[in-house]
Design goal:
Shape: elongated
Number of domains: 3
Helix content: 25-40%
Largest sheet: 6 strands, mixed
Strand content: 15-25%
Mean pLDDT: 89
CATH architecture of the largest domain: 3-Layer(aba) Sandwich
Low-confidence stretches: 473-477
CATH class of the largest domain: Alpha Beta
Distance between the termini: 84 Å
Radius of gyration: 30 Å
Structural class: alpha+beta
């Protein structure tokens, strides 16, 4: 019976033979220092010619400096024992957190995004043709479970590929994908090396860890052949996904695509097979939001798909998310477009009784005029002298205004006026220390509303008219 070291080496050499990767080829290893990546490092060191292997460690700064320093020291020691240098790629202290906020994604996804970005740049600098990662059969099984129960696309169910050619970087290779974590760990022990332990791998705040610690052990007890089944199903889903994508490629001939919008005829869409329809919607979303291509919520695509199938060509409707809007026109044309985010704003109103016009973001003007009996009587009039520390600002999700009929959420009020959600931040609110004073939604087809506490007999004869309008359209709507 072969040792675990021999098993790992055989797996690596057979993979390289299948993909024509020679010992003299320049290979980079994404090295975390854990047992999996150390097993791959030892196998690559055995396989590669001297000088052809580069070892990259990415410092995400997600753990304490003391822990990271200790881990890097051990990784350098292990590399030095093999006559190799450890090349540290430092992302910067707050890079992952900032990326997470900017992309509105989780820490895991943001770390992965920045990690591969840094590794790709390093591979170009060191002229590496291949980038190897130590993904294994456990990673593949966990990925399949997560994608299956997140309603991912059929193409995504092929999970982690062993060989992925990239147009603008090194080929991504996972030579040990067919081996289990325990096999890789045992091969490291057999060769007398110690590896770095990342305590975050034991924390169940991350989805993969929860799957790894709870679902997978129970599954393997019932289906001990799950590793082999996962490899078989991944290949099948991959083949099926390729066939499906060929059909989607043909369907794209009937779709008009621009950088910010997509349109097609509903009647034509309904002639496609349902599985092609769904795959097409995934692809189209990827065109509109390329950064989100791998993280599309299956439930969202399913809802869009259901809405399209239930629609009649003579109907007209609009539905939107925070990022996109889909419209069906009377001509039976479906238009799916990117929503341009509105700017949030908050400006102090230093002289609330003075005539003035504030230029707000989103091409909106906020106006204060002196009382004029000839003005439209539906415009808001209030005693500006009663305002305490007033500001003009955007609508926030939990804003409330107290009207004569009771307290109501401002967003609910705007929805009743059928003002699209993505336009809400452009609507000015007048607020003071007592809360929301007025909502100015008239210029978007709604109504201007005044809080009930200002609807009392005015203490002063002089009042002001408050209104808002689009900057390039000064007529009141």
């Amino acid at each position: 019976m072969p040792s675990t070291v021999e098993t790992v080496r055989k797996e690596l050499s057979e993979f390289c033979k299948r993909h024509d990767i020679k010992p003299s080829d320049s290979i980079a290893l994404a090295f975390s220092g854990g047992s999996d990546s150390l097993a791959l490092l030892l196998a690559l060191h055995w396989y590669c010619e001297a000088g052809s292997l580069s070892v990259f460690y990415v410092n995400h700064h997600l753990r304490s400096p003391q822990v990271l320093a200790k881990e890097i020291e051990l990784n350098r020691k292990n590399c030095a024992a093999l006559g190799l240098d450890l090349i540290v790629l430092d992302l910067g202290e707050h890079a992952v957190i900032d990326c997470s906020k900017e992309r509105r994604r989780g820490i895991e996804e943001s770390a992965r995004f920045l990690r591969y970005e840094a590794l790709s740049k390093a591979c170009k600098s060191y002229a590496c043709s291949f980038l190897a990662t130590a993904h294994n059969a456990d990673d593949q099984l966990e990925t399949l479970l997560m994608r299956l129960f997140q309603s991912s696309s059929i193409d995504a169910l092929s999970c982690i590929s062993q060989y992925q050619q990239c147009s603008d970087g090194p080929a991504l290779i996972r030579p040990l994908l067919g081996l289990r974590h325990t096999q890789l760990r045992d091969s490291v022990v057999e060769q007398g090396f110690d590896w770095a332990r990342d305590a975050s791998n034991e924390e169940d705040i991350y989805l993969r860890n929860r799957v790894r610690h709870t679902i997978k052990p129970a599954l393997l007890q019932v289906f001990p052949q799950a590793y082999q089944a996962t490899m078989v199903m991944s290949r099948r889903f991959g083949a099926l996904g390729s066939m499906l994508q060929d059909l989607v490629d043909k369907a794209l001939d009937q779709v008009i695509i621009t950088p910010s919008s997509i349109s097609f005829k509903l009647a034509w869409f309904k002639t496609l097979e349902p599985v092609v329809q769904e795959a097409l919607l995934y692809r189209l979303y990827g065109f509109l939001f390329p950064d989100d291509g791998e993280r599309i919520r299956g439930s969202m695509i399913e809802q869009i798909h259901s809405d399209l199938l239930a629609s009649r060509i003579s109907e007209r409707w609009t539905t939107e998310t925070s990022q996109s809007r889909m419209t069906l026109s009377f001509e039976g044309t479906v238009c799916w477009e990117v929503i341009v985010p509105m700017w949030q704003f908050c400006l102090p109103l230093h002289e609330p009784m003075r005539e003035q016009t504030l230029s707000l973001p989103n091409d909106v003007n906020f106006c204060i005029e002196m009382q004029d009996s000839k003005k439209d009587s539906s415009l808001l009039r209030l005693d500006a002298g009663a305002l305490v520390n007033p500001v003009v600002r955007s609508v926030l999700e939990k804003d409330e205004i107290v009207l004569a009929a009771g307290t109501v959420l401002v967003t609910k009020l705007l929805s009743q006026y059928k003002i699209p959600r993505h336009l809400h931040p452009s609507i000015p609110l007048l607020c003071d220390a007592g809360g929301v004073v007025a909502v100015f939604a008239r210029f978007l087809g709604g109504r201007d509303r005044l809080a009930s506490r200002f609807k009392v007999p005015l203490a002063h004869g002089l009042t002001n008219i408050y209104s808002s309008n689009k900057r390039n359209d000064y007529s009141e709507i």
